Amino acid sequence: MLKQIEGSRAVAETIALCRPQVICAYPITPQTHIVEGLGEMVKAGEIANCEYINVESEFAALSVAIGASAAGVRTYTATSSQGLLFMAEAVYNAAGLGLPIVMTIGNRAIGAPINIWNDHSDSMALRDAGWIQLYAETNQEALDLHIQAFRLAEELSCPVMVCMDGFILTHAYDRVDIPTQSAVDAFLPRYEPRQVLDTANPVSIGAMVGPEAFTEVRYLSHHTQLRALGLIPQLAAAFKKAFGRDSGGLLRTYRTDDAETIVVALGAGSRRCDARRGLADRLGVDLLLPAVSPERAARRPSACEARRRAREMSRGRSRRHCVRRRA
Amino acid sequence: MDKRTTQAPHGFGPKAGKALQPDYQIEATMFQIRIHGRGGQGVVTGAEMLSIAAFLEGRFAQAFPSFGSERMGAPVMAFCRIDDREIRLREPVLEPDALIIQDPTLLHQVDLFSGVPARGYILLNSTRSAEELGLGGFVHGVQRYRLLTLPATEIAVKHVGRAVPNVPLLGAFAAIAQLITLDSVVAAIQQKFAGAIADKNVAAATEAFNTAVAAREAINA
What we know:
The complex is a heterodimer. By secondary structure, chain A is an alpha/beta fold. Chain A has helices spanning 7-17, 32-43, 58-70, 81-86, 88-96, 121-125, 139-156, 181-187, 211-243, 269-279, 294-297, 301-316, and strands at residues 2-6, 22-25, 51-54, 75-79, 102-107, 132-135, 160-165, 173-177, 251-254, 261-265, 283-288, 323-326.
């Protein structure tokens, strides 16, 4: 259904369609409206079989999410900036335990000086924690990425962050198409956990291991990231088939063929680059959507090609050229 | 590249019958609005309702705040863009086609008129005329704006009982810019508010609309 609605509210309504069973979050600008919206919906009984747990900090929020996910339920949380850094220890643990938690990041700068506005330094600080990070270009894509994120997380047993630019997306009233419950149900099957904490059949997870086993676990995390490179485009294609629009995927190029300068951008900035491309006709825009790090993305042929073109330009021309990532 | 050179000849908004050019004419059909006011005056809500009104007419619209310290009384801005296709820009509106000023005390504190082109629309919440405010040059001078002053706070107090001038100013905007209809503004109000509050706001918007229609010819002359 087409709506003119605030990005955060639209994300909250979409999360509700994904049928989370535990939502746990601590408010921080600019993510607050998402969890406020979800809190209202849970209280009004609009999300079936869902518990909203209030906690005292972001560290507790992700810790509770880890417990819930380990107990075998679909789990969601959201944070921003200092909140993400405050939960950093738990961020690594969620990945090491292979728990398919989905977390929205309303991207915001990190103080000091205190700053509520947008940059990517919060999620980038946790780039190597073992989570997949998906970056939304528009509010529509933010909604669509959340639906894909639960599937990605649950198929890989790996937590996923959906990053959306704070204020620029979270607080923008925009036209979005919110899918129907039946369409989301058809795309996102019921969560079937691979391991659960069960008092009737007790096991330990995340127990202490020596360096030899720890290296294996970190390798597995790396291997999961490599598998994501294949799965992310597959999910985007399946999403397009089901919902009829392009959302997600690894790389999108925009008029790079005759470009002298290619901007590699992440998040909402990329669409603004496209707009500028329309005015400054020699500017090429490459979008690198999920932050699987440029080195890893370079293994994808499309990214490889874009980078090759960028390198050629930087060698072969007399004018000033650069490849720059823009927030 | 100067955005103005890509504007439609009359300088504003979607032009009927003009074929959209891909990309190079990207901003030619876009109409941009900047709303100035103070925290607590419904500046952000005003921009949101404006975007809903445009959306209800089948247009693409975008509204967003410029957040500073979000305290009552602090100068705040909100922005709205309206176009016939997807809007890709997301930066603050620096060159507004229309300016809505919710608080006249900002005249001496904020660079309100920055980026407004000649013949740009300016709606100012004040019980005084442009001449009385010392803005006569803006109406009759070289850099002529289509400026209308309107007692929006008084209209809001009369109908809603609160000094929140955002809704009357939207009604007046619909009248002078003729970009969205009063019906759409009313529908947007009814989406944001319910019951008696909605009815009171609709009455406020309608009175402001009628007042502005009466003044429209003079400012467009």
